[in-house]
Amino acid sequence: MKTRSPILILILATALLCACASAPDIKGSWIDNRKPQPPINKQGIYFGDNGQAASINAENRAYKSWALKGRELTLRGTDAYDGEIKDFTEVYKVKEFSNETMTLEKDGNQIHFTKDNSANYKQSN
Fold it and tell me: Most buried of the four, 30, 32, 34, 90, by CB within 10 Å?
């Protein structure tokens, strides 16, 4: 009986480890790194189970759903300005993504987020 090449076994073991490695999870609270005024009113997006989303400390914007396909993130919700409510759909390119940080890009503008699942942030619906 032939023995398998050690290199082949190493390649297969590496492939198996890579396949089992956990990918970063988008679910949770992501805070926009731009400095709001006053600083206590941090804003962001909550990504929930089953594609549900919510705004964090955003009075005029209500995120309702999200979908991530490859490097494309689609957000849907409503904007409320001057007593008028409008539905929106925004598509972002995910430029960078880890368990702690995420950078989204749309129309050449980048928004940097930090994951923060502390209970200090109120979700608005």
Answer: 30
- Rounded CA-CA distance 110/95 in Å is 8
**Per-residue pLDDT tens for 40-93?**
678 899 999 999 999 988 889 999 999 999 999 999 999 998 889 999 999 999
CATH number of 25-124: 2.40.128.280
CB–CB of 44/56 below 8 Å?
A: yes
Domain extent listing, the chain:
25-124
Taking CB atoms within 8 Å and a gap of at least 24, the contacts of 41-46 are 42/116, 42/121, 44/113, 44/116, 44/121, 45/75, 45/113, 46/123
The pair of three-digit structure tokens given for residue 96, joined into one six-digit string = 């960078």
| Contact (Cβ atoms closer than 8 angstroms) between residue 112 and residue 33 | yes
